[in-house]
UniProtKB/TrEMBL annotation:
Domain Peptidase S55, first and last residues per copy: 94-316
InterPro entries: Peptidase_S55 (IPR008763)
Organism name: Ureibacillus chungkukjangi
Keyword field contains Amino-acid biosynthesis: no
Protein origin, superkingdom: Bacteria
Name under which the protein is recorded: SpoIVB peptidase
Signal peptide range: 1-25
Length: 316
């Protein structure tokens, strides 16, 4: 009997040990953000951003990857620039399923195509949260897909910067609006980008977390999320984050649907904009989730992922 009780006690202790990390996750607090950020991912290759007709009648096609120059591997635009001293350059070019081909150019011709070459992916999104304990952040709520490559890019380094909203193009039914932003503060990096996952980008926050920043708040359990009033935090002018009213109208698994009810936001933006992805959703003073999508035909309507699901980085 004593042996049985001892085994049972060991089993119960093991259960507590296994379950406790999940239990603690629900008690964890995060700082809700809402700032607009510029995102830059440094790629380990060079690709062509636009179709380019060359003087010899050949084309560099959008999405072509420059694999090498004069027999040397190419991993950046700078490495191509270093070869411009040569009178002639031979570019080794490949696009996905096609065979690699060589293109011969003069140094002047190669210099003329440099503006059409890229070795980074960049964009604008919204910072979702900072974990005050681990100094990790999350943003976007969805994965970055390179618009030219049409896939999540491999990257060697990534950075986020504070962005300021200069102008808004309003959303209207069938025509998604967007934010026009510029990077602030002399390109001071706020953090790195460690991963580009299905539920957003994640990395280490490298800037000081100031005392006047929003305070950490509790994460709402998924089963506590209710239909009705909530808020989103986002920036639509300069770098100031404001709270705007929404109504959560549908809850299905880890996805929320909501309608913007805030008259100020509807007047200025028409509803949800491209670049709002990652905006925190708050209900009853607790952290609920992050905006991920808009309904193109109904821009006042949006979707969000719960923050509990976002913290998984991708479906488990």
């Amino acid at each position: 009997m004593k042996c049985h009780l001892r085994n049972l006690l060991t089993f119960l202790l093991l259960m507590v040990f296994i379950l406790s990390p999940n239990a603690e996750a629900f008690a964890k607090k995060l700082i809700p953000m809402g700032e607009s950020i510029g995102i830059q991912l440094q790629l380990p290759f060079v690709y062509v951003a636009h179709d380019v007709l060359l003087p010899n009648g050949q084309w560099l096609k959008k999405g072509d990857v420059i694999k090498g120059v004069n027999g040397s591997e190419v991993t950046s635009v700078d490495k191509i620039k270093q070869q411009l001293d040569s009178k002639e350059l031979t570019l080794s070019v490949k696009q996905k399923a096609q065979e690699q081909r060589d293109i011969s150019l003069t140094s002047e011709q190669a210099n003329n195509i440099l503006p059409f070459l890229k070795d980074e992916t960049d964009g604008i999104g919204t910072l979702t949260f900072i974990d005050p304990e681990s100094k990790q952040y999350g943003a976007l709520g969805h994965q970055i897909i390179d618009g030219v490559l049409n896939e999540p890019p491999d990257f060697t380094d990534g950075s986020i910067f504070l962005a300021s909203i200069e102008q808004i193009k309003k959303s209207s039914p069938g025509n998604p609006g967007y934010k026009i932003s510029v990077i602030e503060n002399n390109n001071i990096r706020l953090g790195n980008v460690k991963s580009n996952d299905l539920y957003g980008i994640f990395g280490s926050w490298e800037s000081e977390i100031k005392n006047n920043l929003r305070k950490p708040i509790e994460i709402m359990k998924d089963e506590e999320i209710a239909l009705g009033k909530a808020e989103i935090y986002t920036a639509i002018e300069g770098s100031e984050v404001e709270a705007f009213d929404i109504d959560i109208v549908k809850i299905e698994d880890n996805i929320l649907q909501f309608v913007v009810t805030d008259k100020v936001l509807l007047e200025k933006t028409g509803g949800i904009l491209q670049g709002m992805s990652g905006s925190p959703v708050i209900q009853n003073g607790k952290f609920v989730g992050a905006v991920t999508h808009m309904f193109v035909e109904q821009p006042q309507k949006g979707a969000a992922i719960t923050v509990n699901e976002m913290l998984k980085k991708e479906p488990k």
